[in-house]
């Protein structure tokens, strides 16, 4: 075989191999484009929707943690003191409501009886008040029966939204919430609503309490 024929044969094989390589390359490129178009959006969406690796801690969370620590410390101190004595001169159950407070005397109890009471009522918190006196506190997110019969919300003489024991004219303030922006209320609220507030809004349950408080919080004076 002379050199010319060998050269032509090699050139022919080269062109055939080049065409195959080009076809294979184009096929690989098409497959890659299809894969990217299908996989990448899901991947990007996953990254965008993924939760951050570390939760954002809020001030409220830290306050709750500190309050829990303080409660645990107070409970430990109470149990420690209770273990030192055998008989308690006076035991009182104190029900603390959102509005109002009631007490019930249980008389003299020994340590075991107090233990049993706290086990039966895990939300109660014990504390010592004075020598030989134990108070078992219960917090209730409601109005006391007395408060339901007598409570009003109105504005005190300093322009604060306040809770009153009885009609506002008796000036028996139970709790003060915040100062009201009177000019803003007068410009936006109907006259009937203002007159109702000045006369006193009767509060008979926790829903009315929260509703009135929420409504007038929009008019709380800033700063």
Task: Give me a quick take on this structure.
By secondary structure, this protein is α+β, with helices and mostly antiparallel strands. The protein contains seven helices and eight strands; from the N terminus they run ααββαββαβββααβα.
Care to describe what's here?
The chain has 223 residues and is of the alpha+beta class. Helices cover 52% and strands 26% of the residues. The chain has helices at 3-49, 59-82, 111-120, 145-150, 182-188, 191-199, 206-217, and strands at 87-99, 101-110, 125-128, 133-143, 151-155, 160-165, 173-179, 201-202. A 4-stranded mixed sheet has the order 2-1-4-3. It has a 4-stranded antiparallel sheet with strand order 7-6-5-8. A hairpin with a 4-residue loop joins strand 5 and strand 6. The chain is elongated. The relative contact order is 0.08.
Number of E strands: 8
| Secondary-structure element string | HHEEHEEHEEEHHEH
Our measurement of the CA-to-CA distance between the termini, rounded to an integer number of angstroms, reads 103 Å
Biggest β-sheet: count, sense, barrel?
4 strands, mixed
Mean pLDDT: 77
Q: How many helices?
A: 7
Low-confidence stretches: 1-14, 30-54
Domain Bypass of forespore C C-terminal: 142-217
Transmembrane segments: 21-40
Protein name: BofC C-terminal domain-containing protein
Organism: Paenibacillus chibensis
